Amino acid sequence: MTTHPCRFCHTAIDVVAQRFADLGSAPPSNAFRLEDDLATPEVRVPLRTVVCPTCRLVQVVEAPSHDALFTADYVYHSSVAASWLAHARQYVATTVERLGLTTQSLVVEVASNDGYLLQYVRERGIRCLGIEPTASTAQVARARGVETVELFLGRETAAAVVSTCGPADLVVANNVLAHVPDLRDFVAGIATLTAPHGTITFEFPHLLRLVAESQFDTIYHEHFSYLSLHVVEQVLASAGLMVWDVEQLATHGGSLRVWAQHATCDRASTPRLEALRDMERDAGVAHDAFYRTLQPQAERIRDEALAFLRECRANGKRVVGYGAAAKGNTFLNFAAIGRELLPWVADASPHKQGRFLPGSGIPVVPPERLLAERPDYVLLLPWNLADEFTKSLAYVRDWGGQFVTAIPELRIR
What is the pLDDT of residue 79? Predict the structure, then answer.
């Protein structure tokens, strides 16, 4: 029996009996390649996930090191997506009002990327600090005027930040909890950063939506964990933190925003927190059967997409991709889709253009290529942004082009 120690509770997990999804092998999903790299072999790592039978944390079994995943030239920049900027702006507006933050407050964002959110905090004259381990995005944040330190957060590094800046009235942790290999040390760092009566908000894709909508492509090596409220409450409790409110969000295909505090604080839990606990219980997150439905759905989606692309090629129809997202790389590698079926992928990010997708080797080009070549179909790899893309790329319809998404089922738009 092959076992894997749970990243949170250290239970020995049987990787066969407790399988969640096995997506073959792939390079890290954000390890984009330059042309000079193409002659050298890529490092491919098994992309297997399991569920802990004790705490119910879903997690990858094998993963490259954290430093190998989040390199100095990391290509994901949050500010590229207009919808995400709007989300951040609205969060800042409502949270400043809800918590009564003032110019005397301190807001710290962990995994602050290119300053996409803290720029709006700074605009309000509120003191802020970004914590971001990747040099490429931290540099862009500083150019925006957002003070940023480059480090991975843990108990010790958090203590060093507090000794310099003081504790934070608000700690923001958007889409980072899933990215840390040592959950206990990370949340201990969050607790250290937070003032005694401060607030922490976490946002992360919700495991219930992942399963219900067959979102297997959100599985990749950067995501060490796949989270339910049930699990997150246990993780936060290990650092003396507790959840007092939760929101369901549309971002990333369905996310939660969890509001947390030190357990010594006196905010009462909200009715929507109790309602979400009930929802997860009714869905069966405490039972094995809940975790056994994703694999066959992933295989169905793969087969549908391959059949569509092969039929298009046989009929002389040209299909290209849009959105060089990490989730798209998981999908393309699992389905073994290469240049013969998808000759290129367009993306608005200049940090990705001129590079090649990891695994598939498909080139990334500017969006203007769509106008030049007028494809019959545009496969939207970040399906969660389909509404945004179909509006911004509406000119594709001028020549009769159509948009396609593959998840949760093949859909021509």
Answer: 57
